């Protein structure tokens, strides 16, 4: 907004001198205000950085320490043991009349040094405490005496009123596991999916790797470790007015950014005590993934005062601030409505330009260089935006006429779109459909799902329950007719880019058309039932997924489940290899009509316990895949041949899974507002003949699943797997006495014998 005013201010005038003076004064005022805002931001960040740097102490603690030293001097005591006098001697001699001032300065310097040493000691102590992970390995619901003592000490050293980045200096670094342990765990994980011959061959490669290359690659990793540091409400649409929904959502997102800049977002604490790393929050906004010939890089701006908007093949720049601050939701609605009402057509090739961001990265990198030279201003407006907004011309969301198909189409629209209506390189794209439904498409390299999910939970709660809408569906407040219209971006596209756009569009449409999405809410039971079974809800679902996938494909496969490693500084994720020997034993028992419920239940509990152990090991830095991947990268840098690592790196994950956490339950009262439940989010399959499965627990009695696969695959079918998941959950629940009421006439579909657990295998 300020930049637009400055452009008006510097426009040459051909009228009177008075008019020129008025325009210049306006421009100077905008320059002054923009500079003032910049200094305010810098001062705010400096103060926030200072507060997080001294946490868990506070600035007032320095004043208390200094006052205590002065009181001791008054009582003729010297707590510094002579150090204050030595400091005083080193200060310049300003004469006798300033003798008392030298004493005060010396005491202040001593207090500052002592205060800094105490803060450093607190940081070290807190880091040592946070390095303890014994609590993760304890049985569910039990707590040992060491863990109780640890919790008490963490509570003492953690301070009060932490800011978002307060714990960053105290988080431990992720350890490098023993390479022997990693290889052993890897072999254990692949044993259920390999034949005896293949396993012996893989084990031979592993032993050769341990004998020849492992120690050298591990040494490099040790050296580095010492040195280096999409969804909406399911049943509710708060307003059918597209521009109003966009106005409230954009305003809420920028309110979140404001709180983020001021570090007013509380850090995430496990058990209400153990902090997680907050580093990923830094790049939520003002971030773009820039393509490169060899590798991409993330470009992050400290601030951005506009969003880039796409509608019917046209790009716009919409300012989000005025000289008085953030635009109101009603003003933003007005700007989006102006775009919706703009009848101008898209220019040739402009409509499909964004398909380049879905193209192979080397093709996009080459085309981007041409765009930067010929359409640099428009490109900067998009890449420098706070985020990207797509005003979709079609409706989406759950419909009463065909709820299943409408949910699937909704998920597909958010995940893939039409291939040219998202700027996939932006940190996230806000998608607002013509009927008021909305959602997010998130670029994954800058952060993991819980971080963007935390932002989106705040956004949905704020735009619905705090900002709200008037009776006629518009944002509350009044329009601002004096606001300049949104700026239409113009692209001077070189001829050689036209071919790149056509190639990118064809590939993007093919990929979008090949994506099969299926979403279904499972409402027979949820977290409350699993809790009454005294089991981990995630492990319950993961083990049931193994049963469902086996019924779907008739065999076991490597299974990926993401686990966070944010217990460590700058931690991201680790892999839980959920297809374990214990899970396979349980699945085989469920498909064996000779096995009793009691036997199946015992094997199920063993499988759940094994999954819990793997999950806790991954969270505590003792996983398999990140270590093996790091060893592989080092081998590539050293040009060292390691057939075992090449074999690991080439593995196919035919079942990729992830749970979407609900982190701010206080924002949504599911009991009083049962319609305000989320449909969760999803991702695509990582293998051409595999599945991507994500799930979210909403309230106590619903689990929503997102399933994706390739339509071109003859081996997968998202709807078929969805039915197997529902059957598997009910079959597992029926093993428990409390779940007998959920039991169908048979476990597994397509069998008339109620005692037969074998499910049908469509397509096999």
SSE blueprint:
Layout: H1 2-9, H2 17-54, H3 59-74, H4 83-90, H5 99-130, H6 145-157, H7 179-190, H8 196-212, H9 214-227, H10 242-261, E1 269-270, E2 274-275, E3 287-290, E4 297-300, E5 306-311, E6 314-319, E7 321-322, E8 325-326, H11 329-341, H12 361-374, H13 376-383, E9 388-391, H14 403-415, E10 428-432, E11 438-442, H15 449-467, E12 487-488, H16 495-513, E13 515-522, H17 527-532, H18 537-553, E14 559-564, E15 573-577, H19 581-590, H20 597-619, H21 625-637, H22 643-649, E16 655-659, E17 691-698, E18 702-710, H23 718-733
Parallel strand pairs: 5-9, 9-10, 14-16, 16-17
Antiparallel strand pairs: 1-2, 3-4, 5-6, 6-12, 7-8, 10-11, 13-18, 14-15, 17-18
Helix pairs in contact: 1-2, 3-5, 4-5, 5-6, 7-8, 8-22, 9-21, 10-11, 10-15, 12-13, 12-16, 18-19, 18-20, 18-23, 19-20, 21-22
Mean pLDDT reading = 84
Our measurement of the CA-to-CA distance between the termini, rounded to an integer number of angstroms, reads 61 Å
CATH topology of the domain at 242-266 and 297-513: Chloramphenicol Acetyltransferase
> What is the structural class?
alpha+beta
Kindly state the percentage of residues in helix: 40-55%
Q: What is the β-strand count?
A: 18
Radius of gyration: 30 Å
CATH class of the domain at 242-266 and 297-513: Alpha Beta
| CATH-assigned homologous superfamily of the domain at 242-266 and 297-513 | Choline/Carnitine o-acyltransferase, domain 2
Strands in their spatial order, largest beta sheet: 11-10-9-5-6-12
What composes the largest sheet? 6 strands, mixed
Q: What gross morphology would you assign?
A: globular
Please indicate the percent range of residues in DSSP E strands (runs of 2 or more): 5-15%
Oligomeric status of the shown chains? single chain
CATH architecture of the domain at 242-266 and 297-513: 2-Layer Sandwich
């Amino acid at each position: 907004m300020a930049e637009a005013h400055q452009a008006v201010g510097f426009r040459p005038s051909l009228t009177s001198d008075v008019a020129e003076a008025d325009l210049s004064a306006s421009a100077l005022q905008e320059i002054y205000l923009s500079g003032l805002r910049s200094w305010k931001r810098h001062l705010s960040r400096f103060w926030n950085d200072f507060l997080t740097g001294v946490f868990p102490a506070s600035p007032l603690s320095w004043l208390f320490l200094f006052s205590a030293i002065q009181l001791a001097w008054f009582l003729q005591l010297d707590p510094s043991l002579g150090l204050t006098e030595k400091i005083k001697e080193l200060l310049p001699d300003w004469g006798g009349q300033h003798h008392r001032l030298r004493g005060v300065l010396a005491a202040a310097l001593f207090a500052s040094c002592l205060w800094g040493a105490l803060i450093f000691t607190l940081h070290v102590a807190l880091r040592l405490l946070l390095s303890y992970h014994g609590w993760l390995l304890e049985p569910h619901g039990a707590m040992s005496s060491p863990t109780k003592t640890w919790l008490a000490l963490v509570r003492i050293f953690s301070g009060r009123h932490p800011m978002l980045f307060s714990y960053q200096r105290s988080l431990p670094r992720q350890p490098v596991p023993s390479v022997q342990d990693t290889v052993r765990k890897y072999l254990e994980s692949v044993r259920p999916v390999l034949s005896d011959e293949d396993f012996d061959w893989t084990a031979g490669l592993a032993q050769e790797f341990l004998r020849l290359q492992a120690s050298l690659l591990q040494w490099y990793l040790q050296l580095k470790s010492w040195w280096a540091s999409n969804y909406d409400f399911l049943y509710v649409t708060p307003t059918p007015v597209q521009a109003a929904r966009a106005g409230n959502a954009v305003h809420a997102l920028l309110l979140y950014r404001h709180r983020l800049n001021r570090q007013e977002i509380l850090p995430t604490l496990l058990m209400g005590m153990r902090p997680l790393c907050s580093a990923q929050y830094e790049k939520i906004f003002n971030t773009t993934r820039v393509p490169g010939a060899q590798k991409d890089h993330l470009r992050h701006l400290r601030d951005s005062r506009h969003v880039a908007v796409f509608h019917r093949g046209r790009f716009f720049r919409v300012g989000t601030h005025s000289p008085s601050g953030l635009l109101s939701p009603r003003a933003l609605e007005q700007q989006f409505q102006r775009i919706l009402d703009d009848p101008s057509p898209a220019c040739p090739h402009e409509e499909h330009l964004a398909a380049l961001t879905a193209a192979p990265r080397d093709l996009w990198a080459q085309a981007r260089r041409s765009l930067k030279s010929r359409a640099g201003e428009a490109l900067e407006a998009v890449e420098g935006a706070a985020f990207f907004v797509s005003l979709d011309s079609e409706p989406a969301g759950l419909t009463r006429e065909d709820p299943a198909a409408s949910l699937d189409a909704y998920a597909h629209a958010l995940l893939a779109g039409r291939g040219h209506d998202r700027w996939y390189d932006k940190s996230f794209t806000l998608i607002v459909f013509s009927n008021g439904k909305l959602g997010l498409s998130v670029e994954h390299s800058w952060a993991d799902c819980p971080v963007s999910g935390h932002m989106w939970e705040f956004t949905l709660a704020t735009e619905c329950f705090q900002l709200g809408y008037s009776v006629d569906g518009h944002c509350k407040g009044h329009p601002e007719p004096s606001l300049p219209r949104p700026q239409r971006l113009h692209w001077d596209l070189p001829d050689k880019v036209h071919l790149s756009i056509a190639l990118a569009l064809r590939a993007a449409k093919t990929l979008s058309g090949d994506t099969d999405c299926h979403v279904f809410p499972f409402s027979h039971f949820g977290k409350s039932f699993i809790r009454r079974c005294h089991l981990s809800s995630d492990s319950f679902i993961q083990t049931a997924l193994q049963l469902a996938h086996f019924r779907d494909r008739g065999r076991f496969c490597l299974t990926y489940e993401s686990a966070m490693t944010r217990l460590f500084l700058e931690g991201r994720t680790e892999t839980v290899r959920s297809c374990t020997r214990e899970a396979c034993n349980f699945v085989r028992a469920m498909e064996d009509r000779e096995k009793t419920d009691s036997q199946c239940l015992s094997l199920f509990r063993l499988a759940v316990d094994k999954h819990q152990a793997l999950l806790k090991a991954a969270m505590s830095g003792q996983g398999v895949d990140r270590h093996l991947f790091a060893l592989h990268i080092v081998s590539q840098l050293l040009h060292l041949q390691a057939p075992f690592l090449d074999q690991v790196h080439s593995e196919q994950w035919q079942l990729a899974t992830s749970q979407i956490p609900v982190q701010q339950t206080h924002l949504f009262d599911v009991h009083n507002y049962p319609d305000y439940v989320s449909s969760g989010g999803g991702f695509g399959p990582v293998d051409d003949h595999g599945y991507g499965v994500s799930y979210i627990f909403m309230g106590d009695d619903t689990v929503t699943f997102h399933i994706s696969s390739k339509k071109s695959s003859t081996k997968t079918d998202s709807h078929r797997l969805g039915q197997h998941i529902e059957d598997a959950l009910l079959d597992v629940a029926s093993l428990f006495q409390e779940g007998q009421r959920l039991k169908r006439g048979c476990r597994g579909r397509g069998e008339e014998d109620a005692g037969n657990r074998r499910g049908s295998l469509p397509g096999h």
